[in-house]
Amino acid sequence: LQECKVQNSSREYCKIFAAEARAVPDFGAVPEIIPLYLIYRPANNIPYATMEEDLGGPCEQYCVTDRDGSLVARGTSEIVLKCCTFQHWVYQWTNGNILVTDMEGVGWKLTNVRIATNLKGYQGLKESCFPSLLEQFPAAHRCNRYCSILGLKTLEPAKPKGSKSPCMGRKSAQSSPQLQKKM
């Protein structure tokens, strides 16, 4: 149940990130977090299981939490850099309250995500809450060209508050990516 909550909550952030990234010229392809489903099998010894799309190949690690508890980007490929930008975006979107910490997948499809949060009981999450990663992230993150393309600000220690979009200086719903495309 926790895995589903973590992955599917992260997926929702990724959808918003994708909408904003698509509205910016030159950003290109965007990672997608695939849904993780919880299935109930009442006649089975283990009544609950998770199910997700077959990614068709071995998973590659893009961003992981190392044994010492630090965040590590595995390489400098476009997908790794965009995963790092997504981490920056979520951190900024939530004013430093949530961070997607682990991402792996095949191509642009991501799975096995984890989060760190300092929000007690956020979305019922208990097991994936590593607030120390939130404190480390501003110093550990190295902005890349995709952070610049989205106009993300250089990170500073967060002051937990409400959420707002870090992209394009949005101040109201009137400047949403969907409306900008129509204009």
From TrEMBL:
One of its GO terms (molecular function) is ATP binding. One of its GO terms (biological process) is cardiac muscle cell development. Transmembrane segments: none annotated. Gene3D superfamilies: MHCK/EF2 kinase. The keyword Cell division does not apply. SUPFAM superfamilies: Protein kinase-like (PK-like). GO terms for cellular component: nucleus. Keywords: Disulfide bond, Immunoglobulin domain, Kinase, Serine/threonine-protein kinase, Transferase. Residues 1-155 form the Alpha-type protein kinase domain. Residues 158-183 are annotated as: Disordered. SMART domains: Alpha_kinase. Residues 172-183 have a biased composition (Polar residues). PANTHER family: ALPHA-PROTEIN KINASE 2-RELATED, ALPHA-PROTEIN KINASE 3. This is Alpha-protein kinase 3. It comes from Acanthisitta chloris.
